[in-house]
Each structure stands twice: as structure tokens, then as C-alpha cells.
Amino acid sequence: MKWTEMTEMAYLLRPLSDQIQEVQNFREKKRGSSLFNHLSAVSESIPALGWVAVCQKPGPYVKEMNDAAIFYTNRVLKDYKDTDPSHVEWVNSYLSIWTELQTYIKEHHTTGLIWSKTGPVAPLSLFGAPSDVTCPPPPPPPGPPPVFLDNNPKSDDTAAQHSALFAQLNQGEAITKGLKHVSDKQKTHKNPNLRSQWGRTHQASPAKSQNPSSSACAPAKKHSPVLELEGKKWRVEHQEQSHDLVIEETELRQVVYVFSCSNSTLQIKGKVNSIIMDNCKKLGLVFDSVVGIVEIINSRDIQLQVMGKVPTISINKTEGCHVYLSKDSLDCEIVSAKSSEMNVLVPEGEDDYREFPIPEQFKTVWDGSSLVTEPTKIAG
């Protein structure tokens, strides 16, 4: 696709891209909502609407977005399948949008959207584009990440360059025939004039490097730490180097949302509905009991200790997580995805624990009727 064509596409898709960004921003503003999994399913899959800009095989792209939605709709089904069938109907209805879109793409646009050569030209002026597209127009304003563009638009050029490189290497000794002879006058170490020119050219460069760049990134904004009850939700946010955080006055209907905390320890007393830990690093969490789920997302180096009971612990996109179970919580279900370095510690005796790693590598085989997946046993 030529530069002018890509620019035209960017202008035409700008309203769609802005709406997708609005959907994703809305989801970020509703963290801690009882419908957060619903919103996440929509937010993670809505970029599939940009399939029209995927240059090759947009069908798999839509399927990838659909799989991202399924990760969250499975949680919706788990929470509501036995209590409210309307949520199950919503899941089926929403996922059918993407499956039907995949079917349409497979039938009509398998290798990418085909534009009509005889159809009308899209009026770029409606979207603020300049009327003369022969001159380079100004770039569009900053928007969401370019999720619609092909990640490898120059794969053909790269392959051609590799072929040319191997062809040159295969010449053997003949490859030196194309080299030019360099006289002593052209060699810096044998020509004083060249050395003096080189010195004058590079004397100014250190001074330039010492000046701060005008485009240097501004320091990250520091947020004020938060520990407060907002309606039915406890907010614990942006805590750093705080090892005495305690939530004491809890109720069964309350949710605890822990966001962007690091190098801290939080204790939750009593029984709460659920706990969500998002974007945290080196955080220790000790809690009594949870009636719903404890969810760890986008975090690193987490230590979690259950003093009472918890039915489910979910670990998603997390590196390093140690879960200490109590004797009353040994029947807990631990669900993990896209995570590593996870360990479960089971009580053994009075004050001792036995550590068990959660598998990260799996083997899948076809047994004649279905796929069977089981953890692999790594020798050594």
C-alpha cells in the first residue's frame, strides 16, 4: 500500500479508531465494577472492527480478538450460569458477532479487503483531510496504538534483501571484484588534512549531546496514595514502601481493589466479596476470607496468604506469585493464564509449608476423538 493510500486509510478510519479508544477508556474508568468482566470482553475484542485495514488474512486477526473476549466471557459464565441466564444469553449473543464476522471474511475477503476500482472515491474532506492528496498531508492527531495496521508490511522487501545478500555471498572470492581501491590520500591515518577535518567535524558533537533534548519525555506523574472506602469498594492505590496497610472494618458485600502498589504489605481483616490486585509489584497481601474470587492481573513478585477460606484465585499476566494456603482453603481452585513463576505453598505441620510449582508448559495430543492437554514433566 502506497504512502498516500495509507494516509487516506488513516483519515477514513479515524472516526472508528476514536470510538474504539472511547470504549477502551470507558472500561478503564470502571475497574472494580460488578460488570468489569463484561466490559473487559468488549474492550479486548472491539479492535476487531479494524479488520478492514489488515493487509493479509484478516480472518485470523478477528479470531485473535474473539479469543481475547472469550477469556473474560468465561468468567462471566462462571459467575452467572447458575444464577442469571440473561448473562449467559449476552455472552452467546456477543461472541456470535465475531464468529459471524469471521465467516463473512472467509467467504468474501480471505486475503484482505478488496476495494472496488470503479466505485466512488471516499470524500476525505469530511474528515478534515486536505483536498490535495498529492502533497504530503499533516499527520493525524495522536490516537490509539495502530492495532489495524499490518505488523509486517515490508516482509516481501525483506525477503528480497535476504535473497540478494545470499546471492552475493555465494560468489565466493569473486565478491571482492566489485570493491574499489582506496588510495593513501583517502586514508585518514595517512592524510593529516583528513584527520584535521575529522577533528573539526566532531568537536561540536559533544556539546550538542550535553544539551537536553527538546523532545525528552517528561517525568512520570506521581500519584497520591489512596486507602479509602468508596461506596462498596475499598480503594488501595499508588502505595509505595508502606508495610502497615490494614483494612479492618469490612462487610460481606464489599470489594477491595488494589491498584499500582509496590514494595508494600496489605492486610484485610474479616470477610469480603472479592479482591482485585492490578498492576502491582512486590506486594504482600494477607486476608482472612473471600466469598467470591481473588484476582491478580498484570503484576509481578506477589505474595498472597489466605488465613481463612477462598473458593477461587485467578492469576493472569503475572510474573512471580507465591500463594500460601491455609488448612481451610485447600479446596481452593487456582486458575492461571499467561503467567510464570507461580508456586502454591500448602501447610505441613504447625508452622511449615510445602511448596508446589504451578505448571507453565503443556503437551497437547490427539487421542482419536479430541485434544488432550496435560502438563509436561521437565527432566533435571
From TrEMBL:
Biological processes per GO annotation: actin filament organization; cAMP-mediated signaling; cell morphogenesis
UniProt cross-references to InterPro entries, sorted A to Z: Adenylate_cyclase-assoc_CAP, Adenylate_cyclase-assoc_CAP_C, C-CAP_CF_C-like, CAP/MinC_C, CAP_C_sf, CAP_CS_C, CAP_N, CAP_N_sf
GO CC terms of this entry: cytoplasm
Domain C-CAP/cofactor C-like intervals: 219-358
Domain of life: Eukaryota
Amino acid composition bias (Polar residues), ranges on this chain: 193-216
Coiled coil: none
Region (Disordered): 132-157, 180-222
GO molecular function, a single term: adenylate cyclase binding
Start-end of Pro residues biased regions: 135-147
Family in the record: Belongs to the CAP family.
Protein name: Cyclase associated actin cytoskeleton regulatory protein 2
